[in-house]
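Quick bug: Response regulator output formatted oddly.
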Amino acid sequence: MTSLNHSITFIVDDDPFVGLLYKKHLSNLGYNNLHHFFSGVECLDNLHLNPDIVLLDHQMSEVNGFEVLKKIKRSNPNATVIMVSGQEDMATALNALKYGAFDYIIKDGTETEKIEEALKRLAMLKSQRPATKSLFRKLLP
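Here's what came back:
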């Protein structure tokens, strides 16, 4: 499985406790290039760092998570954005996926485990890509 531990990872949440919780959890998983931003504006101001992974809160002041998500995907289409929200609304989750989020996780007390599972899926997908490309090269003249 491909390691994502050296990926540039943004944590975007206006709640300092939540940001610290995610940062500590990811650090315990071996992630070491973590940046916590307290607003969508702060995140957008730092897109020049080219994040690989973004944990993005949906409900933030100044600019909402959807607007940040759209701007991240325009700036860096390969960035993997995992939207984390307290909203259990199906339309919100579907919109997040429509705008390019890799996953939509509900803040229900188990979100750190769900984030970990999403990152495992991401690592598995990334490890399969080179094999798929190699297979296509062999099949195509």
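Actually, after a second look the formatting is fine. The chain has a mean pLDDT of 89. Closing.
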